[in-house]
What does this fold into?
Amino acid sequence: MPFAVVFENVTKRYPTGPFRRGGVEALRGVNLRIPRGAVVGLLGPNRAGKTTLVKLLLSLSRPTSGTITRLDRPASDTRTLAKVGYVHENQHFPRYLTADELLRFYGSLALVPSEALPKQVDRLLDLVGLADRRHEPIARFSKGMVQRLGLAQVLLNEPDLLILDEPTEGLDLPGRRLFRELVALQKKRGCTVLLVSHVLSEVEQVCDRIAVLVGGRLMKEAPLSDLLRDPKGNGTRPLEHALQPLYEASLG
Amino acid sequence: MNLPTALLTIRWMVRDTFRQSLVSRLFWVMLSVSVLCVLFCLSVRISGDEALPTREYETPMRLNPEIARQMGRDNAFAFGLVGSGLAVEAAADPLGKKLARDEGLDVFQTELTLGFGAFKVLTARDRKDAVRWLQVWLSGAVADTVGIFLVLIWTAGFLPTFLDPNQVTVLLAKPVPRWSLLVGKYAGVLLFVAVQASVFVLGTWLALGISTGIFDGLYLLTIPLLVVHFGIFYSFSVLLAVWTRNTVVCVFGSLLFWVVCWGMNYARVSMVGRNLEGMTPVSRGMMEAGYWMLPKPGDMSLILYDALKAEGFSMKVPEFKALQDQGKFHPELSVLASLAFALVILAIAAREFQTMDY
It folds into this structure.
């Protein structure tokens, strides 16, 4: 099976202390394979290492040991980022730009061909419902509007891999519906999605696989349906119940 | 990563910096300062004597010190033979003029009116020199000292704001080299300062020309020298921004660095120019190494002073003058060494930014 993302025995240690001798291990020997076209929910309690994993996948940080492959190339090869879209968990865009200017700016840096960019910007602003506010500075946008703009921004380069870190925070109900539609649309065109979220209902609705990180270790990686199957009977159980014993391991 | 991608990134970062300056109101604050100075220059009126006709072989010579002292001036110059006697810069006071005339000398005098007639200043210069005197002050004191200081403070926040992880992370996840983001931001700030310096210098030059009829092109040399001076010191601010992402550290760090460089520059010039004794070879060597490694703001000011031919308008720092008189001042080497420092610091900052974890 072809994989969009492969983590092989990846460890990330953040050095601390005056001589950087101490350290916090944010990831410990993580092995993770994300099949192409899958929508994977990355779950875990706070400080589980989810953001670190995302940063490593985006080449924002480098692993202490282990190897990471992104779209068939080593993660150190940043050319593959041209086919990656990323929503940051606490997104702050330059407040002095308008929505239109921001998308042109970020689209250019995502290496979208200049002749295709204006049409792409028009289409995406329309898609996320910001077409009529396109010339307003972002400073006047609500948090939900900034999130919508963030969603438009990740689709500029028609990515093969989408990394969404808490993308629905601040979104209202129509915004969340829009988010689900967008993910479904991307899945349909074969894009791989990694969704980091604490909103389990949302994860259940859009993901087909789940990866659970606890204390820097990958505790589980399985299809959503496997996790939802009740081991005591033939029925299903809420995702929360499936996660509870895994999360409690971090307390132990 | 190929060059076109890096150039594209730099272009976008330059554009972004201008937008940032417009919204942070820095653009307008600096423009307002320039407009005030332009208005001041427009308010200048000048009346009085024209420059003496001099021939190429006639160079100004210092007046007999005793006559100069009696006229109330420590420094006065004779500007060539005219008619029956020497014409001199003379003190503005009537006694000085009388003394000079008793000596058989013609006397220069011009009246500068400032603030649209609010203030009147009598100067012992011809009309052109009176205008150049104003230009030397605008260039040396306003732009090269106060201006550089303020611009270093005002622009220190640009990079820390940009490097805030919540803002820059999405850009770092784009397929462009990280160093080009940093270099683009540096180039943007430099270009912004170049535009502001051009507005200031060209504006005041034109205004003085319109109000007095005297256009002296030497003053325009201030623009490139100011930009180079700023660019050298801003590179250090860039390094601090990459290391700390903290505006306060960038402001105080770059100002402190400027002061330290001035101190090192002055100390070395004193050592060589005054030929200080009692220094060990080791301390001499360390002083030389410090001087050549660090930027040299004093030398930059001296180069500006010489470019404007400011002798006769303001006093040169005696230690620098002594160094020049001994033929030990090398402006080209000094600028090249300072530029090399800026390049090395930028390279370190870019390397650090390229490899750091976000």
About this structure: The longest strand of chain B covers residues 77-82. Chain B touches chain A at residues 1, 5, 8-9, 12, 15-16, 19-20, 22-24, 164, 166-167, 169-177, 357-358 (CB under 8 Å). Residues 55-60, 75-92 of chain B have pLDDT under 50 and may be disordered.
